[in-house]
Write a structure and sequence with these properties.
Length: 154
């Protein structure tokens, strides 16, 4: 498929989509590492690779199964340009300001990661289903996340 698309769009860069991290959930999803391993040929054929990283507290942000999931992707595919297409603290255990400060720390950590193309927080806005992650509430008001992140000084 990629070869046909490349022939038609030679300047295009094709990526492998980010996977929701975690184990098998019967009827919903396969273990993310098993899925990635089974898709290895497709990953290697892509120009870049996406991943998702989530954590529940400051300690989990620097855990291999939390905010540092990208390091395993880097280990498996050291030459691929990597994009974190979703990251967040999805819990209700931290307030918006704390989450904003965690995001600043995360951005700072990623600034010097070799081969990192971008990191995108999840989610700016959602009509339902993500009440602990949205940067903007459905009434149009902002949480403290964009205020804190926007005021950062790098």
């Amino acid at each position: 498929m990629k070869n046909r698309l490349k022939a038609k769009f030679p300047e295009a860069k094709f990526g492998y989509p980010g996977l929701s991290p975690g184990g098998n959930i019967s009827g919903q999803r396969m273990d993310s590492w098993a899925f990635l391993s089974q898709g290895d040929e497709a990953v290697r054929a892509c120009d870049w690779l996406a991943c998702h990283c989530y954590w529940i507290d400051d300690g989990d942000q620097v855990a291999a199964t939390g905010g540092l999931v990208y390091e395993e992707y880097r280990r498996r595919y050291p030459d691929k340009l990597l994009f974190i297409t979703e990251f967040s603290n999805p819990t209700d255990n931290a307030n918006w300001r704390t989450k904003g400060l965690q995001y600043i720390n995360y951005y700072n950590r990623l600034r010097n990661v070799t081969g990192m193309g971008a990191a995108l927080s999840f989610v700016v806005s959602a009509s339902s289903g993500f009440p602990n992650e949205s940067w903007r509430l459905e009434d149009g008001s902002l949480t403290d996340i964009p205020r804190v992140v926007g005021a950062r000084a790098f």
